[in-house]
């Protein structure tokens, strides 16, 4: 009996290996238009452009391009952004959907981010909306400092989305933070032939997790805030990105 | 069997004793499907997702239900396969985990390369704004002009002139090619809107692309991107016929291929439409006239007043045939030839009535006029253009044009109690030759040259029966008058320009020579019943007015990007003028050096707004129509002459303009203040009595000035798909005149005008547009108000989409020409359109002027008179129309 089981295990293993090499998943490329404008106080930030998410059911990779923008905000002043094109040799982020791991660069040149604590238990509501011809259902939740309203569609059963938004039974097509600072919206969906793989592993840099990143950022913020290059001059760096790094009580 | 259960045990995870666990494997043709979505829905709420998970790399899933349930629905989705839903009913509690496997099937059809892209209505890239026509159309647009009127930022004037951001467009391109040259209304009024893929409005446009970088490109242009069809030739034909014998027929053809671009249009209509670049209703200056204003010979004899406050479609009673061919052929990548040929034939009918009360110098009297007019213009036009781009640095171009017009004017007039017949025959012949070249010497400099010659003559013959007596102290009866008047104008121009750019400074040096020769020959005869003819040199002209003008100009401009810009043009002209009057044997000559500067300063306040200030000073020579001394009979009761004086007219012009432009929010606001101050000017001396009006223009060293404030606002609100446009102006003008031997009177005119348009392009069943205008005129004499009146009109249009094929629209136009009177007009138009699915045919039922307004009465005032005038309108008609696209 035991021997039979062992043999069976090996047969299954071979079968499994065979399965993995076959590619069932179809790959899609989704373009999202993003408008980020956090002007709550002078430690906010802004960004305008397009993020291209190339994903299949098990992994995603994204590229970002920004648009020519000159915006004048009340609190964060004037921000100028010069247009750039997609740089397919420099992806912005990679996600392993099977293990819910998010990889990206950080502002610290020697460190890469490997974040596996970003998962949010989104609450699916009964509200619906149509985006790009798909019927989307609403989900709400709180993610690292902001409350969000998301719209996903089960018609595209890929449990992914831009940035660290995923974990819903369908592709996320729109993300809006309730106070209005974060907005991502899908504008184009097409098939893709790209083979997705983790671009950061080969960089031979150290990985840090989210908690380590936050601690390092807080140190950096304290250093910069105390640095006064000239009299009456101060350098201001943001306290928040999509995620809140440092909250209002400076924690 | 045993092994199978072992397999399950290996991958087993813990299960909840209270609520059920559902697990299984998702297969496709015996292969596991990884990362498929598994969604649980409760039976009492099928639309809501209760719980969800996904299969792992081995195709296995497991869900622990949050609460014990009796029945659930489980849905499995995977992008590559068909979704599957299974129903689990009567689930027993405390059972072992429920195993539910799925075997997915192939999707019935392969996903085609589906690109779902949300088409944005407006895309802005650098200097080009691209409009997506589908977002702005309401479905009633037939030609490109109808669509352009709906695009925010673009305005189409009554004569067809297209303006973008307040500036007139320099070019109307089709897929980048300039097929129509300056007569682009042929394209905008006839090209079907179904051919348009996108409309691009280009700013910072360089009319001469070879001068790129050397001039500050401030022009604007429109480029129509055409739909790429399967064939080179496309077009449409339409025929409409209605009660009272109304016709509207048109055939247009568009030919596009690598070497050729051609556009042919032939139209006939008698419902008041004008599809051509010409306009013979006197008051509207057509596009073709605007471009050749300087070279055209003047005509003194009136050919009917066709002015109306209403739109052409209500009052223009015509019978118009127009055919135009525009052809562009690229012989090679260097040589392009273009030709435009046109024939225009029309018959315009109108009855004008006017009742004028004069109060001049304590004298009051009334003049009553009625005129029944038939005006038949015929026009033949031919343009030829050849351009040769010899190499990347040198291009030359030749343009030749010939234009022949014949206008037959007939009218029966009533002047108080005198009944007369008027007959005017005008023939115009215009020839133009233009040769120009551009040589781009190097990156920083270029040279252009132009040689231009034009010749225009416009003889007119006017017969008035019975005639007016022009001889003093005679009792002879005048059977008829013959007034002959002919202006000839010959223009020769040559100019060389040198461009040089140094970093931020751009320099332009101009040297030119202009020679203009005007002649006027006119004489007025009175034919008596006994066969004799009387004429006098008082009523004759043999005038020659010519001037030669060499000039040298220097232009400098400096731009500090995003900050400010400064430009100055110093023009030095040397005038050599001669005016000869052979009848009165008077010769006047003048030589003068004139220095005219133009300065422009622009300051950028922020990325969205800037301030522009301009100042110019100019001395201009008088126009030839203000220099003839002999009387000319210009109508059945009007005479015209001048007290000639070849002094220069000095004008100072000031302008201050604030412009706010938010490109992302499509909001535009402009406020401008203008002031023109003339040190001397022509003033009119009018002598009006019951039978005749004599107008004499004379030059006076008295001032004449005007001020005006203009406001322009436009905003497109995408969330409610609404465009709002408001423009208003307030103008003050200080002038002088002499009426009936009065002293020189100070006349002040105040004019307030407000216009607002609201347009929604919501993709729902309704489309609404409302356009209102209000104007208030005030005439003051010696600071006391003499005459004033206000008028108001409002057009409301609503379009309703009945089904997918039917559209109906109703438009009402409410006009109150004089707000102090109860005399108001309501016009009602309606249309029903049917477009079957294949879109090749379209059927329409058009109803115009349903309230059957037969005549329109308006009021106009001056500082010494008040006129109640009326003219007839196109009566109510219903048209049935069929259009076919190929």
TrEMBL record, chain B:
SUPFAM superfamilies, sorted: Carboxypeptidase regulatory domain-like, Porins
What is the organism field in this record? Flavobacterium microcysteis
Name the InterPro entries on file: CarboxyPept-like_regulatory (IPR008969)
Q: What molecular function terms (GO) are annotated for this protein?
A: carboxypeptidase activity
Keyword annotations of the record: Carboxypeptidase, Hydrolase, Protease
Q: List the protein's name.
A: Carboxypeptidase-like regulatory domain-containing protein
Q: Which domain of life is it from?
A: Bacteria
